[in-house]
Amino acid sequence: MKAYKLAAIPGDGIGTEVISAGVEVLEALASRDGGFAFKVDQFDWGGEYYKRHGRMMPENGRDLIRKHDAILFGSAGHPEIPDHITLWGLRLAICQPFDQYANVRPTRVLPGITSPLRHVVDKELDWVIVRENSEGEYAGVGGRVHQGSPLEAATDVSMFTRAGVERIIRFAFKLAQSRPRKLLTVVTKSNAQRHAMVMWDEIAAEIAREFPDVTWDKMLVDAMTMRMVMKPQSIDTVVATNLHADILSDLAAALAGSLGIAPTANLNPERAFPSMFEPIHGSAFDIMGKGIANPIGTFWSAVMLLEHLGEKPAADRLMKAVEKVTADPRFHTPDLGGKARTTDVTAAVIDAIHGAND
Ligand code: IPM
Ligand code: MG
Q1: Which residues make beta-bridge pairs with 127?
Q2: Residue 163's domain spans which residues?
Q3: 66-108 tens-digit pLDDT
Q4: Model-level pTM?
C-alpha cells in the first residue's frame, strides 16, 4: 500500500478550520479506498509563529517539507502583521523556491450553487485559469528610497523571462488540449505594457504551432473581465501573468457563486519539488473561530492533490461527494446564503464518500 507523506500547513485565520476538515476528508477517502494512506505532518507556521519567533516559518522550513509528496496549505495573513510580510514569509517563500510555477485555478458553477450572473447554469461556466506563479509582477524586484522625505520614490518592476513565459504558456496549451473544447485564451495587456507583454504575445504565437489542434485567441485583461461577465460560455482555458490572473481568478470565483468554493494547485510540473494545494479564499478574520468557514474550497483543492498524486478514482469520488453536498442547500455555509457549519459540510462529504457508489 502506498503511504503518501502530506505536509499540512494550516497558517492563519480560517486556514486552521478548513485544513483540519481537509485532512479528515482525505483520511476518510484513504480508508474507503484502501489502496493508499496518508502520513500527515502538521506545521504550525504563520502569523502566530511569527509573533513567537520573528519569522513566518523556521529557517530550515523548506528542508522539512522538501521530501513530502504534497503540501496542503490553508492561508497566510494576520491582522497584526503587514500583508507583504505574511505573504513573502510563507506562501511565496514556498512557491518560488519550490518552483511551483503553474498555478491552476478551476472554476465551475457547482450543483446547487447560484451564479450571480443571470441565466448562467452548470456547464456554461467551466473554466481553468492558469496563473504564472514564479515571476512577473511578483518577482520582488524593486526598491524604495528617501522614505519620509518628499523625494520618496518606489518601484515594483515586473520581470518576465523567456524561459518562464514559454513554460507557462506551453503548460496552458497542454491543459487546454486535454480538455474537451481545446480552447485557450492568452491574456495580456500588450497595448499599454509594450515590452514584456508583447513578448508574451510573440511566445504564445510560437508555442501555438506545437498545438495545431488547440484553438486559441488573445485578449487584453480589461476586455477579458467584460467577456467573463458577458460571454462566459465562450471561455475554457485561460493563461495570464501572476497579477492579471490573480485578479481574474477572484472575479471567476465570485461569478461561480463564492470565493469559499474556489481551489488552487501550485504545481511544479517536473516534480522536482512538492506541489502545494490551497483554497483561494485567504484567512477571513471576520469569520475565524466561528466554525462557519466553507471547507469546499479545501476539498476541491484536495481533489487536485489526489489527481496530482495519480489517485484518479479517489479524486473523482471526492469531487462527486462534493457535488452531492453542494446540491443540498442544507449544507450551504453562510457565504452561500445558508446556515450550515464547517463540521456539517465535512460530515456530509464524508458520508457521501462512503456511499459514493450508491
Ligand atoms: C491569491 C491571493 C494571494 C495572491 C494573496 C493572499 C497575496 O490573493 O492566492 O490569489 O495575491 O497571490
Ligand atoms: Mg488572489
Answers
A1: 107
A2: 115-255
A3: 999 999 999 999 999 999 999 999 999 999 999 999 999 999 9
A4: 0.95
